[in-house]
Automatic annotation (TrEMBL):
Organism lineage: Eukaryota, Metazoa, Ecdysozoa, Arthropoda, Hexapoda
GO BP terms, alphabetized: glutathione metabolic process
Coiled-coil ranges per UniProt: none
Record-annotated GST C-terminal domain positions: 88-145
GO molecular function, one term: glutathione transferase activity
Keywords assigned: Transferase
Species per Swiss-Prot/TrEMBL record: Micromelalopha troglodyta
Residues covered by the GST N-terminal domain: 1-82
Subunit structure: Homodimer.
Cross-referenced InterPro entries: Glutathione-S-Trfase_C-like, Glutathione-S-Trfase_C_sf, Glutathione_S-Trfase, Glutathione_S-Trfase_N, Thioredoxin-like_sf
Protein name, per record: Glutathione S-transferase delta2
Pfam families referenced in this protein's UniProt entry, alphabetically: GST_N_3
Length: 145
């Protein structure tokens, strides 16, 4: 098995894929994509991923991007009966719920608060911080027990 992962180490979505691969003991061929240099717009990368985003994997000629889709794919193909993405419909629905919460609530609020500061030199926005903190309270509730 030889899976290429096109990634940027500082990217949280890329780290999700790295964590899932590590949990499944999958060795990845790491391919750095320097977004600041525009590597994602090079013709060879655009052939793999016309959306020009990281992470992107290539598994035996099959190209896939979006961290949650990649994670599900890796568990479905290589995880067997892994608890990471269980077969039981109710248990799987809870995993999907958490993944969708991350996609639609937690990560956007994280990005809205931190990215303007990290990449634009903006000052901290208290209203955006409160929205992020609200999402973190939800996350803590999900993690209880």
């Amino acid at each position: 098995m030889s899976i290429d992962l096109y990634y940027l180490p500082a990217s949280a979505p890329c780290r999700v894929v790295l964590l899932v691969a590590a949990a499944l003991d999958i060795q990845l061929n790491l391919k750095l994509v320097n977004l600041m240099d525009g590597d994602q717009f090079k013709p060879d990368f655009l052939k793999l991923n016309p959306q020009h985003t990281v992470p992107t994997i290539v598994d035996d000629g099959f190209s896939l991007w979006e961290s949650r889709a990649i994670s599900r794919y890796l568990v479905n193909k290589y995880g067997g009966e892994s608890s990471l993405y269980p077969q039981d419909p109710k248990a799987r629905a809870l995993v999907d719920l958490r993944l969708d919460f991350d996609l639609g609530t937690l990560y956007p609020r994280f990005g809205e608060y931190f990215y303007p500061q990290a990449f634009g030199g903006a000052k901290a926005d208290e209203a955006k911080l409160k929205k992020l903190e609200e999402a973190l309270v939800f996350l803590n509730t999900f993690l209880e027990g």
